[in-house]
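Morning, I've got a small favour to ask if you have a moment. I owe you a coffee for this, so here goes:

…
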Amino acid sequence: MSPIEQMMRAAPVIPVLVIEDAGRAREIGEALVEGGLPVLEVTLRTPAAMAVLRAMADIDGAIVGAGTVLNADQLRAAQAAGARFAVSPGLTEPLARAAAQEGVPLLPGVATAGDIMRGLDLGLDRFKFFPAMAAGGLPALRSLSAPFGQVRFCPTGGITPDSAAEWLAEEAVLCVGGSWLVRPGMAPEAVAEAARRAAALGTG
């Protein structure tokens, strides 16, 4: 099993984290791991992102990666901050080749058959389906997965606690990305409880 597949199978939901305050990073990460979600995607959307990565990388049991990685420079910076995998909103050849060269498991975003074919040409077969709802939702995913039987997905973008189970029931879906898990100002106890509910989605 490839490193990216191991990461995708570690939990049914990967929290997609946009954290402004690096001082809260550790308590948030620990609460998510405690709740049963060890894979944490720290998006590079805030000035604090690299500090958040560094803080979460030391958490026992956490598998911390960087999201919204757009180019090779960001990939290398995230790796230096402790990221063990990278997630990108799209797929480019320079990013895919940089990830392979640096040994960073990459989960690139795809939304079309052409995206998937380009990924397969680059040796990739595990993708983020993004933006999941805006790109056509479950009907689009089913249509895309049909001609690519070996491909598996992590749908992200518009997935909710109410819809996640339906996505996870698809054979082609290994996990989903969840931006609903951590909201600004949430107490660690509330984060852990949200994580427990999300982790339970994989037991149905």
Observations:
- Strands lie at 13-17, 39-43, 63-67, 86-88, 106-110, 126-129, 152-155, 176-178.
